[in-house]
Amino acid sequence: MTPTPRKTSSGLEENVAGLLTYVLGFVTGVIFLLIEKDNKFVRFHAMQSIVVFGAFFVISLVLNVVPVIGTIVSVLILPPISLIVWIVLMVKAYQGNQYKLPIAGDFSEKQLAKMK
């Protein structure tokens, strides 16, 4: 017997809301962090989305400033890595796992603890 997924304050099932926190990178992370006040699962995934994809965004900006090598890394290496991370995080959230990436997951939990 499969347990009934919990609802969030947005009315979505917990796993669906967790997946949606990653859909548009850090943008949907910010939206769900502002909307969801109670559900720890969704808030964790929202914060992890902000941290991970915010970091990818900043790294991309910095690399684009570096001539040749930075641009090559920014265009050829960073997108496939971010795509793989994006897919893995969405799948794990949809499966109901509070999957923590190394460093980013712990940092996200610490930031959420400060927000209480």
From TrEMBL:
Keywords: Membrane, Transmembrane, Transmembrane helix. It is a multi-pass membrane protein. One of its GO terms (cellular component) is membrane. InterPro entries: MamF_MmsF. It is found in: Membrane. The chain crosses the membrane at residues 16-35, 47-66, 72-91. Pfam families: MamF_MmsF (PF09685). It comes from the Bacteria. This is DUF4870 domain-containing protein.
